[in-house]
Design brief:
Strand content: 5-15%
Number of domains: 4
Helix content: 40-55%
Largest sheet: 5 strands, mixed
CATH class of the largest domain: Alpha Beta
Structural class: alpha+beta
Number of helices: 10
CATH architecture of the largest domain: 2-Layer Sandwich
CATH topology of the largest domain: Heat Shock Protein 90
Order of helices and strands: HHHHHEEEEHHEHEEHEEHEE
Length: 481
């Protein structure tokens, strides 16, 4: 089956226009008489223009010749013959023929250029629309269905189907047409291979220009499919790399941060159990205190790892109740008193501070992580300042240390999992405390951020919503040790 449009209909239309236009011109001029040669000539030129506009350049040229013959036969002496007695009439006839040929040729060329310009504009618009649809970010099945519908409408198709490994787009005309259906299939190929097939069908034949445009659209679609496949591979590779990096970081964190307290505990216990070892009361107290502190350190590490697992599984859901923030701060400071023996703590609680709506256990974990981080980076003897105050509908807690501080460009990164800052002190933690604190605060509907402290250092601030339901205020006995 020939898929290209036959030139027969356009040739037939050109021939009809080339014959009918001069005949009508002569028919209109004959009633005026043979003496109105100028009028007949004008009508003849008009016939050439009409034929060129309706049938193209060939029709205009043929109409020029027929109009020339009509003027010669009906309006030049001797009439009703093709002979010409006067030289002036012969010159006039050939001047008319030359003028008609030039006018018809120029008009048909102008019309052809306009048609080509309109088609190029239509093609550019269609290509731009196709590009926008292919890069819209919607599900691929939806993109293909929209593209098939666009092609169905633009090319007056009966059916359009785009088959790809990622999905299928189909659009079918609701208009019932008679006649034999012509179909064309264009492979969706790139330099990397074939990614599907574009199938189109309609009753009228496809022109060569239509086929060229459809091949361009098919190539564009194939590139989009290839790009989507490559993007999927890149995303999978990135996720795999991130997972591997996370597993490596977790393994490194666990092995390093668990080994240090375990080594201290083992050394202390081995010394206590050693044969012939004699320690005075102060030495025994120091060794037992080391075991207790390192056990607390291990407990915090394990708690952070468990909280990380809960955070990643989406089960970090707080059990909220109204509770004063000052009770939570006092409980945390009491539990961390051994770690704070050499660190002055200044606490400022604004009076008439309303209770917050929070999970006591989780907010204590936030306070512990932030205070422990402040201890880690505070120089010897430098105080830690803890302030709690009302801010609009929240209670704001501010914990300040006077350590080396955090550059502005890194203040958001400190909340990333396993992010550690190298301050040259060798006192870095697991890199989980602030990440888990952020997750807990966000789960409570609050926010947490880092600022620079006046005079140098770091201020960690977080805000928690004020309790909206009045209830007995106080923490459960098992929540605040």
């Amino acid at each position: 089956m020939d898929l290209l449009a036959s030139s027969a209909p356009s040739r037939r239309r050109a021939v009809i226009a080339a014959i009918v236009a001069p005949v009508v011109a002569v028919a209109l001029a004959l009633p005026l008489g043979a003496d109105h040669l100028a009028t007949a000539t004008a009508l003849g030129l008009l016939a050439v223009v009409a034929a060129a506009a309706a049938g193209g350049r060939g029709a205009g040229l043929l109409a020029s010749v027929l109009s020339f013959l009509g003027l010669n036969y009906f309006f030049t002496e001797p009439r009703h013959t093709l002979a010409v007695h006067q030289a002036s009439d012969l010159v006039a006839l050939f001047a008319f023929l030359l003028t008609a040929l030039i006018v018809g040729s120029l008009l048909s060329r102008a019309l052809e250029e306009r048609a080509r310009a309109e088609r190029r504009a239509m093609e550019a618009q269609l290509l731009a629309q196709t590009t926008a649809e292919l890069s819209s970010g919607e599900p691929f099945d939806t993109i293909l269905a929209d593209l098939a519908a666009t092609l169905l409408r633009r090319f007056d198709l009966d059916r359009c189907e785009i088959e790809t490994p990622n999905g299928t787009g189909v659009a079918t005309s609701e208009v019932v047409r008679s006649g034999e259906e012509r179909s064309i299939s264009i492979p969706l190929t790139t330099a990397s291979g074939e990614f599907g097939t574009l199938t189109l069908a309609r009753r009228s034949p496809f022109s060569m220009a239509d086929v060229d445009l459809l091949r361009t659209l098919a190539a564009q679609t194939a590139l989009a499919i290839e790009r989507a496949a490559l993007d999927a591979e890149v995303r999978a590779a990135r996720l795999d790399a991130e997972s591997s990096q996370l597993r490596a970081a977790l393994f490194s964190s666990v092995t390093h941060d668990l080994r240090t307290p375990l080594s201290s505990i083992k050394a202390s216990v081995s010394g206590l159990l050693g044969e012939g070892a004699h320690y005075d009361e102060e030495q025994l107290d120091e060794m037992l205190r080391t075991v207790l502190e390192e056990t607390d350190h291990l407990n915090r590490i394990v708690t952070n790892l468990l909280d990380l697992a809960r955070m990643r599984s989406g089960s970090l859901v707080p059990s909220k109740q109204p509770i004063p923030i000052e009770e939570l701060i006092e409980a945390v400071l009491r539990r961390m008193r051994r770690s704070l023996e050499d660190v002055p703590v200044r606490t400022t609680i604004r009076p008439d501070l309303p209770p917050i709506d929070a999970d006591p256990i989780e907010i204590q974990q936030v306070l512990s992580n932030v205070i422990e981080n402040a201890i880690r980076f505070s120089p010897p003897g430098a105080p830690i300042e803890i302030t709690a105050a009302r801010w609009r509908d929240d209670v704001q807690v501010r914990i300040v240390d006077h350590g080396p501080g955090i550059p502005a460009e890194e203040r958001t990164r400190v909340f990333e999992e396993f992010y550690r800052r190298d301050t040259g002190t060798g006192r870095g933690g697991t890199g989980l405390g602030l990440a888990i604190s952020r997750a807990i605060v966000l789960a409570h509907g609050g926010r947490i951020w880092v600022e620079g402290a006046p005079g140098g250092g770091t201020a960690v601030l977080f805000e928690l919503p004020v309790a909206t339901v009045s209830a007995p205020v106080g923490a459960p006995e098992d929540a605040i040790p």
